[in-house]
Design brief:
The protein is of the alpha/beta class and 110 residues long. It has helices at residues 15-20, 36-51, 67-72, 99-109; strands at 8-9, 26-31, 57-62, 80-85, 88-94. It has a single domain (14-105), classed as Glutaredoxin. It is built from 4 helices and 5 strands; from the N terminus they run βαβαβαββα. It holds the Pfam family Thioredoxin.
Length: 110
């Protein structure tokens, strides 16, 4: 098993460059400090980031601190994970799920 990788943060200011302009698909978690399920899904995403380094980029964005991007993608509940490929959202996962379920959704979309 690959070691977990720290999931880098993006902001309203860096979102376009780091997510929409990425050469590889990017899974973005919209989260907040007060969100319990977000804390549960965090380690799973860190693990995925390590295991899929090179083929998938994983980022997180604080929904409270980055309202522009959160509104743009109509994020209504947390955690919400959106998979972007070639600058376009291709699938959305709302809620905390086990790693296998998240991987299944990613594999279907990719």
């Amino acid at each position: 098993m690959t070691a977990a990788t720290e999931v880098a943060e993006v902001t309203d200011a860096t979102f376009a460059a780091e997510v929409l302009g990425s050469d590889v698909p990017v899974l973005v978690e919209f989260w907040a400090t007060w969100c319990g399920p977000c804390r549960m899904v965090g380690p799973v995403l860190a693990q995925l980031a390590g295991e899929r380094a090179g083929t998938l980029s994983v980022r997180k964005i604080n929904a409270d601190e980055n309202p522009e991007t959160t509104r743009a993608y109509q994020v209504m509940s947390l955690p919400t994970m959106i998979l972007f490929r070639d600058g376009e959202p291709v699938t959305t996962i709302v809620g905390a799920f086990p790693k296998a379920r998240i991987e299944e959704r990613l594999d279907q979309a990719l």
